[in-house]
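Lab notebook page, bench 4
Experiment: in silico fold of construct C2
Operator: M.H.
Input chain length: 189 residues
Purpose: comparison with the prior construct
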Amino acid sequence: MQARHDEARREIEAARQCDPVSPVVNAFVSYIHLEARQYDRAVVAAQNAIELDSAAPLSYFLLGRAYAKVGHFQRAVDALTDAVRRGGNVPRFEGSLGYAYARAARRVEAEAILERFRRRPLASVISPVEGALISLGLGAAEAALTGLEAAHAARLPSAVVAGDPFFSDLANEPRYRELMARLRLPVQG
C-alpha cells in the first residue's frame, strides 16, 4: 500500500526461503505483484500457489483479482467463484467477485451482491469498501468514492484498501486524491 514494492519483494522472498511450500506465503507473492501493478506476474504466482494447495481460497482470490486486472474477466469470475465457494462467502472475496461480474457484463449478478451487502444486518458488518469496489466495476465512480470516504470516516481499517490497484482507476479524481492524502498513501496509477 505504501508503494515500497522492492522492500515487499525482499520480505516475501525471505519468508519463502523459510517455508518454500507454504500456500499462504506463495499466495502473498501474487499479492505483492498485484500491488506493484505487475499483473501478469501476479497471475503466474497465484497459479503456482494453487499448484501447492488447490484447496486454498486465498490463492483463487488473488488469481481472480489478477485476471481482472489483465482484462480476463470470465477467468476472474471463475477464480473468484472458487474463492467464495472455498472461503465461505468472505465479503472481500464477494466484493471482488461483484467487480468481476460487472466487468464481465454480468451486471445483474454484480448488483445482486451489492444489494445483499446493503441489506441489514449485513450492512452493519460489511465494510463500505466492498460495495465501493462493486460500484467501481459497474462504472459508478461517485458511489465508489462515497464508499471509500465512508470507510475512512468510520475509521475502518479497510479504508487503506483505497490504495488497492482497482481503485487506481480513480487516480484522476480530486476526491480520491484528497482521500489518499488523508490516508497518507501514495496515489498510484
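Observations: The first helix runs from residue 5 to 18. Residues 106-189 form one domain.
Next step: discuss at group meeting.
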